[in-house]
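Amino acids appear as letters; backbone shape is given numerically. Here is one record.
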Amino acid sequence: MRAYPQKRRRPMSTDWKGRCLCGAVQYEARGAAFAQLVCHCRDCQRASGSAGLPVVVVSAAEFSFEGEIRSYTITGGSGMPTTRNSCAHCGSLLFGTPQHAPDIVTIYAGSLDDPSRFRAEFVQFTSERHQLDAREPGIAQHAGRAP
């Protein structure tokens, strides 16, 4: 029997890259995520304009961005100050820098170049989740624009 050399599989990148809507700000986080979660606190709902905010938690030491951002600091759902960073041009919400945890950055998963990599490990502040989260089985779902 003839042996064929096995192809070496290239490991999937653990780097996280993303950008804003207009492309003026790009970011990259090198390495694996510490956590992936969806936060339903009222602060995340207001900041994102949705039912909850999918978040990838990465190392601040391995995070970098290019472009002009606008920062806004508020007391978050945890009761601790957090800074939310958006594109100064288009306003896209991109990442957070919680003051109580200066070693992490929270990337808002909707801004990822490949959001399909996001896999929530847990959900928090479910007591504040409400009907804006329309992923219920009884609600009609359309793959494209609704007819």
